[in-house]
Amino acid sequence: MKIFRTPIYFPWFFPRRRWGFSSASKSVYLTFDDGPTPELSNWILEYLAKEDIRATFFCVGANAKSYPELMNRMIREGHAIGNHTMHHEKGTKVSKREYIESIKEASNYIDSTLFRPPYGRLPMIYGRSIRKNYKIVMWSWLSYDYDKSVPISEILEEASRIKAGDVLVVHDNEKVMDRIKELLPQMVQIIREKELTFEVISA
Ligand SMILES: [Zn+2]
After folding, report:
1. pLDDT in tens, 135-188
2. Percent of the chain with pLDDT over 70
């Protein structure tokens, strides 16, 4: 049993991290983690342009460094970008100094004051330092697009519970390559049927 919706006590423990937004705007916040990837980002960007949707991309510094033209395209087409460390480090596996260094290195290629910790793992004292320069953006709904043991039909079933103010996570990485093209259009349709609009997360 996968937990798609972030349990309510996470925001209680980490109230200064952004888990979702007010439902008043009737919007959801679509976020793509881990890109850019040459095999997939262009497809995602084409699709979003066709649907007139703006999203927020939490990019890995090493990928941003390798594919600056994809970063430029994201920005040019009205999407927001955020920092997701240089090499997708897990906050519980590296020292605070190394972690902060990784974010700093990534910032050479990702000009943003938004930050999302890979795997959602971030010790509290790391968060305190990062907040001096960044807004830490978590999520309220995780798609499991990367996990092939979760059928797309189940993800769509859970997507029917998406609501205004939700921050949604999908991915722009090789793990989702076979699935995202099938999943994303159906997810978008479900969200549109709820008369919700798509907004970027502003810095
Ligand atoms: Zn990630």
Report:
1. 999 999 999 999 999 999 999 999 999 999 999 999 999 999 989 999 999 999
2. 100
Cα-to-centroid distance, 143 and ligand 1 (Å): 13
In angstroms, what is the span from residue 59 Cα to ligand 1's centroid? 8
Cα 89 to averaged position of ligand 1 atoms, centre (Å): 9
The residues carrying an active-site annotation are: 33, 171
pLDDT for 3-53, tens place per residue?
999 998 899 999 999 999 999 989 999 999 999 999 999 999 999 999 999
At residue 118, φ and ψ (nearest 5 deg) are -55, 140
Query: Could you tell me if 82 and 59 are in contact, meaning their C-beta atoms sit under 8 angstroms apart?
Result: yes
Helix 180-193 × helix 152-159 angle, to 10°: 20
By the 8 A CB rule, do 45 and 73 touch? Answer: yes
**Domain layout of the chain by residue ranges:** 20-198
Q: What is the model's pTM?
A: 0.97
88 CA from centroid of ligand 1 (Å)? 6
Class of domain 20-198: alpha beta
